[in-house]
Amino acid sequence: MLKPTKPAFIHKIRVAWADCDPAFIAYTGRFSYWGLESIDAWWEHHTGLNWYALNVDRGIGTPFVHLSLDFRSPVTPRHLLECQVNLTRLGNSSIHHRVEGRQDGVLCFEGEFVSVFVEAKTLKSRNPPADLREIFDQL
């Protein structure tokens, strides 16, 4: 019997005119920003903690150690940008996300984002806390 799938997490972004370059498409640098914004929203949706609360209130940092993006189609202000975020791997001290950005059903970009768990004050590597690992294991 197949395990039921959960609905995908989608973060919607209004692309603004100011996000665009002289070619009337989104600046390249905005894509990583939108991916990070979407992952932050994913964290808050699933754990109740955004990165600020995780860092300040729990003393846990999650700096990024790897980021890769592939561009598939231009992004413009014409449609909402819908960023689907998936947890793809949880390691002993790392967490891997995949972000796919679509406009009007068209895949515009896809990216891999890897961060590590650290003690916020010392930046020493640490394991994800048990309560968060329990949440992630159910995703």
Characterization of this structure:
It contains three helices and seven strands; from the N terminus they run E-H-H-E-E-E-E-E-E-H. The chain is 26% helix and 35% strand. The chain has a five-stranded antiparallel β-sheet with strand order 1-4-5-6-3. The protein is an alpha+beta fold. It is elongated, with a radius of gyration of 16 Å. It has a domain at 43-137: Thiol Ester Dehydrase, Chain A. 23% of the residues are buried.
Task: Indicate the topology.
Elements: E1 9-13, H1 28-47, H2 51-58, E2 60-61, E3 64-71, E4 81-90, E5 94-103, E6 106-116, E7 118-119, H3 130-137
Antiparallel strand pairs: 1-4, 2-7, 3-6, 4-5, 5-6
Task: Kindly summarize this structure in a few lines.
Helix content is 26%, strand content 35%. It is α+β, with helices and mostly antiparallel strands and 139 residues long.
For the termini, the CA-CA separation is 18 Å
Q: What fold name goes in the CATH topology slot of the domain at 43-137?
A: Thiol Ester Dehydrase, Chain A
CATH architecture of the domain at 43-137: Roll
Low-confidence runs of at least 5 consecutive residues: none
Order of strands, widest sheet: 1-4-5-6-3
Strand content: 25-35%
CATH class of the domain at 43-137: Alpha Beta
Helix content: 25-40%
**Total number of strands:** 7
Q: Main sheet, how many strands, which sense, barrel?
A: 5 strands, antiparallel
